[in-house]
Structures are given as C-alpha cells and as structure tokens.
Design goal:
Chitinase A, domain 3; 3 helices; single chain; two-stranded parallel sheet; 158 residues; 21% strand; alpha/beta
C-alpha cells in the first residue's frame, strides 16, 4: 500500500499541534466578518482605549480579532441568495417564523438576531434563495426562506 493512503499521516486537529482559534474556527479557516461588524468592533476598541479603566485583556482580545479577520465589503449589487451580511426571514415546518442575520463568528455578540456563518443554521442558509426549503444539521424541522434582505443593521446599542 502506498504511504499516501496511510491514515496516521492525516493532520487531525485533535492530534496535531494546531489548535482551534478563540472564535472556534477550525485551523486554517479564514475569519470572515462583515464590514459593519469590523467597524463596530473598531469603535468598541477605540472607546476602550479612551477609558481610564483597566481594559487591557479586552483590548488585547479585540486587537487579536481585528488582526485576524477578512472583512467582506458590501457589494454594489447583492446576490439573490443568502450570503454573509444577509438578513433572512425563515419559516420552520412547525409554523414558527424567525429573522436572523448571517455574520462572522466574532460579531455574533453585536446583534441579538446574529447567526454565525459556521453554525448549523448559518451553513444551511448560505446560498439558499427565497422559496427554497433547507434543513440545519441537528434540527428535525425544515425551513423555507421567505425573504432575504441586505443592508446595514440597525445599531442596537451594543
């Protein structure tokens, strides 16, 4: 058997020296963030730096996040399908409706309706179009995409 197919040669994160990031992204994954999320984190960082309180650990955390992100700018023409930055209204098969915004892992805390693009729901929604039925891993209910909107989120004081 060729050495190319020996199972022990695979680089499994749990057995390698590589570790997951603080954000929970797998090793080597790009840390995507919306432009509005990056702007809000930069504003939070500037506020922390201007305060006299000892915020050194939070400042270091935000510096680390902002240094690692790949900011996705808003395109001139948004796609018809769900992409990072989309606000999506869905209806589950049990009749429950929900609206969420697909964002990067480090900006989930900025919006009550935020869903990370790497979460089961986020993964199920990415690329879906209005009227399409999808199912998130671990959820027995299917969901139908009712509406997709793009634009800047309303500031919620976070």
């Amino acid at each position: 058997m060729s050495r190319a197919f020996v199972k022990e040669d695979t680089d499994i994160p749990e057995r390698s020296a590589r570790t997951r990031s603080d954000s929970g992204l797998p090793p080597g994954a790009l840390n995507y963030m919306t432009a509005s999320g990056a702007r809000r984190l930069r504003q939070r960082l500037a506020t922390l730096r201007s305060n006299s309180a000892d915020n050194s650990s939070e400042i270091a955390r935000l510096d680390h996040i902002l240094a690692s992100v790949t900011v996705i700018e808003s395109p001139a023409v948004w796609p018809a399908s769900v992409a990072l930055g989309a606000t999506v209204t869905i209806r589950y098969s049990d009749g429950q409706a929900e609206t969420c915004r697909i964002v990067g892992v480090d900006e989930v805390e900025l919006d009550d309706r935020a869903v990370s693009w790497i979460s089961p729901l986020g993964k199920a929604l990415l690329g879906a179009e209005p009227g399409e039925r999808v199912r998130a891993d671990g959820d027995k209910r299917s969901m139908t995409i009712l509406k997709i909107e793009y634009g800047e989120p309303a500031e919620n004081g976070s």
